[in-house]
Amino acid sequence: xxKSAIFEPNILNMSPKSILLLIxxxxxxxxxxxxxxxxxxxxxxxxxxxxxxxGNNVLQLEGGIGFGKEKHDIxxxxxxxxxxxxxxRYGLLIEQLEIRLNGRFRADGVKQIVGANEQKINxxxxxxxxxxxxxxxxxxxxxxxxxxxxxxxxxxWKEHHRFKWKTLIPAVSAYAGVNFISADNPFTFPxxxxxxxxxxxxTQNNWFTSYxxxxxxxxxxxxxxxxxxxxxFGLIMTATHTVNDKWAGFLExxxxxxxxxxxxxxxxxxxxxxNQDVQFDANLAFNFKDTPSIFTCSFGASYxxxxxxxxxxxxxxxxxxxxxxxxxEEDGEEGEDGIEGEFDELDESETDxxxxxTTPFINEFEDDGFREEIERDLDERRxxxxxxxxxxxxxKIDKKEGKKFKKEEAxxxxxxxxxxxxxxxxxxxxxxxxxxxxxxxxxxxDKMEQDKGVDQELEDLxxxxxxxxxxxxxxxxxxxxxxxxxxxxxxxxxxETDIDAEYEQYxxxxxxxxxxxxxxxxxEEKRRLKEDKKRKKEAEKRKKQEEKNNNLxxxxxxxxxxxx
Length: 564
Description:
By secondary structure, the chain is of the alpha+beta class.
């Protein structure tokens, strides 16, 4: 799928007969492999390139778009980024050779605060365009290890699951290319040359497992722009894991080092194989610093034009003329004697309904009519067996469809019951809310009646206070009238004072003072009662407001729970 190696069959999932046939082909044929794969072999969604080419006479287009943000803490800039990357790969002349054109277009808007104003700078250009060629130097998978042809060894679990040290040896390829940069490019070093070389050493390990999917590990060592004043060096490590026949995930770590820009970038994502020639992918990229910080989301696709007609054999040195005579005789003993016996056992236990060869136990010199009758009888029996197998398969399919229908029906009934329960709960809740609303209204009316009674008491107290003030005014008026005769001049200063009159006057003053004190006390008491009533009323109003606020918060919480 992604960076996949050459196609290799899974031995554990094949029938014994097919296994032995495959072994026979390996022992009797040339030991080699081809670069071409049945499924598309894409370098996406990562930025590394695998060691294997697309195959001779195969054109492959790969591309994607990305959206991201960059933030520079020192320069205090924020950048919105859009980029489009492309790659055109073509297998030329031989299986090991591939020519490749790739590049990236970038458009961004940089926001920067200058003084009290925010400025935005828009930039767009090709960051780079590179044309080059890749050649496979070493392929450890081109000659499989000699396999024991005995069926007992093929059944050995230990033999199939033991660790093979040879898998640690990677395939190695070399890439050489030329960079093309436009003048006044805002994304490159100002003094970079318009044309500069690029070299890559790519390695790839493939680990094929019968469980848990397959793995591929790709490493790229990059030397770029070494003829310029700003050479760049890089390392990319990509691990790819196929989950099943359609889905794969990847994890990539990239190190980039130069005087112009250095960074460590992590990428994670996956790919979906739509068919043999189309793949879709997506990935996220981020780094670990803030000068600038990077976060990018990308989506892409790969498409293959497959004009490959014949696998070109990559022969191992020493086998250009075919298998040597000694090896042919040795392989012939195993292939013809050992494997033929295994085929005979398999033929006795397994009926091949597609076999239309001449029946072996019929004498060649017998009558053709008799032979045709026997062949016709065999054809009828094979047809009956085929129809029986089709009937059994159809019954299995019908049974499976019936189970599926019952399962869907059970899900539908369960869903309807759940919806009915939810509707019943909603109705009960609405009824409870209605009852609660009625109770709240009744409580509010009761409180209004209580508040009305308190208001009446306050009005009565106000009336009593007004009456007391009126009485005080009358007493003051009487005192003024009594004091008026005293203001007249006394004609006889030397007249003796009447002791009884003075005592009587003293008693009146005492009585008056007591009355005034009592009135003052009653007035203060009523004022205090009035203030107590007011405080009580205000406390009840505050309590009522708090209850309303609590009810409102409970209603809001219930609405939020409904949304959740």
